[in-house]
Amino acid sequence: MPASARAAEPTEGARLVSHRGSVDLRHPGKVWEDGYYIALFRTPSPINPQANPVVATLHGGGWRGGGRERTNRMMGRWIRPFAAAGFDVANIDYRARERSLPDARRALRRLVDELGGRPVCVMGSSAGAHLATMLAVFHPSKVACVIDVAGPADLADWGGRSRSGRGRRMAIRAFGVKNLDRYSPIRLVDKIRAPLLIGASRCDNFTSLELKLSYADALARAGNPPEVHLFEPGDDTKGAHCKTTFASRRHFVRLATGFLTRHLVGEYSAPASGAY
Description:
Elements: E1 6-7, E2 30-34, E3 36-41, E4 54-58, H1 69-74, H2 76-84, E5 88-93, H3 100-114, E6 120-125, H4 127-138, E7 143-149, H5 164-175, E8 196-200, H6 209-221, E9 227-230, E10 233-238, E11 243-244, H7 246-264
Parallel strand pairs: 1-9, 4-5, 4-6, 6-7, 7-8, 8-9
Antiparallel strand pairs: 2-3, 3-5, 10-11
Helix pairs in contact: 3-4
């Protein structure tokens, strides 16, 4: 790990409880649609009942969207623990390829408007992590923090892994070959001001760990050192484009909950005018 990046540490007092039954993924509390799809899940144990903090989640899948309700189940492994920890969760789906980023941007604006202007933290996996980072680039006042799980740092260079070529082809379909550098987070570090928590693994089949750590180092040199967690390769559960140990994923959930607590709860210490 680069010396300038910080190893992620749990936050003292962060709530982490059993997430079974925390929310019913079939029945979101609110749904907003306009090309994009937003499903808001309200936690049964809010941190602040008057103005509860909100985490937005964005699924992966090579910038191929359109699953709507199916993405709620896809992201359930993140929605449930965040809701169990006291956060409301807004799951965002977007249309495919070239519409993915514009839809995600419009969805974020809609969500923040519905919250009366309060910023949110954005979490994504794979292509969803890339979109989450782009939201921080384009809408810094609306994004309080970013959780990046296995997002590509460089759309033009994926690091020579077994599925790197496929990842690059999907990025070309979404953004065009001439725009790969333009939408690569590693080339935008001076525009990323939101705090970041990065989850990565050496067993990632799409992008190399070395590239991800180079990205973390570039962020640190730009004055925004991220927190970094490395998933341990294993046979228990899906992690960062590969199978990882259940213990390392569970630890990452603890880290993510603490990260959200640090960067969101303070934002919501007073009631806001917006209602949803």
